[in-house]
TrEMBL record:
Protein name: Peptide/nickel transport system substrate-binding protein
GO cellular component, one term: periplasmic space
Entry-linked Gene3D superfamilies: Dipeptide-binding Protein, Domain 1, Dipeptide-binding Protein, Domain 3, Periplasmic binding protein-like II
Pfam family, one: SBP_bac_5
Domain (Solute-binding protein family) ranges: 88-428
GO biological process, one term: peptide transport
Highest taxon of source: Bacteria
Iron listed as a keyword: no
Keywords: Signal
Amino acid sequence: MIMKSLRSRRSWALAAALTVVGAGLTGCGGSDSDSTGSSRTAPVRALLAAQPATLDPIVGARSAQIVWATMLEPLINTGGDLAPTDTGLLTGWTRTDPTTWTFTVRPGISFSNGEQADAAAVANTITLTRDNPASQLKSYFGNVTAIEAPDATTVVLKTKTPQYDIPDLLTTVYLVPPKYYQEKGSEGFAAAPVGTGPYVWSGANAGRDISVKRNPDYWGTKATNEGVTFTWANEAAQRLALIQSKSVDVSFDLPPAQASAAKSAGVEVVSTETAMKIIAFLDSTKAPFDDPKLREAAALAIDRDAIVKGIFDGQAVSDAGLLNVKPGQQPTQSVTADAARAKELVGGAKPTVQITYPAAQYTNIEEVSQAVGGSLEKAGFTVSYVPLDYGTLVKRIVGRQVPGLSIFAGVPNVAVPDYFVSGFMKTKSITGNCPDPQIDTLAQQALEQNDAQQAAPLYEQLNTIGVVQKHCYVPLYRQVFNYATAPGVSGVVFGPLNTVDFTKTTR
């Protein structure tokens, strides 16, 4: 009876998803021309694994940027090596003294609502990012003491102490219009975002789809399609079925089994090793992991290689480090699984552990959480599971309301180690799960170096303290991201920092 009911729900969900896609996107391709004579194609139908929690880039997790980044732009673009480039809204920067950065703003840019995207707008966005209590990036800008716009194309940013990675951080700060954002507030802005990007807001059906359309006044190279409509389906089987039936043009986040099935059916599948890594966070401020011995036991019990092999069939990359943020990097020191030693450390105490994870947010996250829990149980822990929607999990983490062990992704939208140090390791970080004055001191020292090369040894030391010595973090694996495109669809550009460019997509 339970299985029959489950099948019924899944069948209904698939039918509903098909209905949404069909209702939201009629028409089957073709192209026409705009008033300038340039060819463009019909809207792209993109299928996501989950509905974005919010489209406000100030307070939203970066997993939703696949949608908002069609309309909004980062202050600084990145190149193929993930380093800042001068091709975006900010076209140049100089470090005029150890604590002062001066940025040049591209002139003549407007938001789609007519507001000027000038230096004042840039300064306002950075200020919101630093000062908004709910800002996802608040901890990264705590060292910034002043943000000024002396003229329309100049922003001067001052820091309390030297900080070498300010331009890197601005690659994940998305420009918002000051007046509109203040008038609408976070929820109002998220309901109809306004930016400077290649697309503009077109509308949404609550809980069903979100649409953007081509921005005819975009300052850069205009999109080759009319727009993008985003729908979502939590179950991988639905995402596979919808791409196979050609009901969508691109289906994101296909687990290994569905990716293999899609390939067997002749569907084109692209696999990319990303910078996103799945991490188990142990809260050292609450029982049971306020006991260092039990943190070590948990770290030794979890076998990341077994997870990659057993759950992903090798279609993920075992990753033993926290601060090795670029694909292909590994730390100099790491923890190797040792089930016998883990059991010895736990002894006969049978400590209780709560495992919290974001249901349906990441590929095979349910199976990964169960595998982690099974390893802990073999070591002698008593395990309970708390699946939450992603938005709720983030709020509870920020509110220090997640005891035990939590599993979620670290996404280095900025390819510098401090993105994880400030986000996860410092006392005043997002997670706050491993407060330690030594970590705070080393993190500050690393930022005060002249450049990334000089800071590298300090970040290796930080990684060793957090992962190998204190066992506050158990890195698991780096995600290999699979997405499938329907026949005739081309030009989807997926980057290792989990960004997607739809502007060249045709169907």
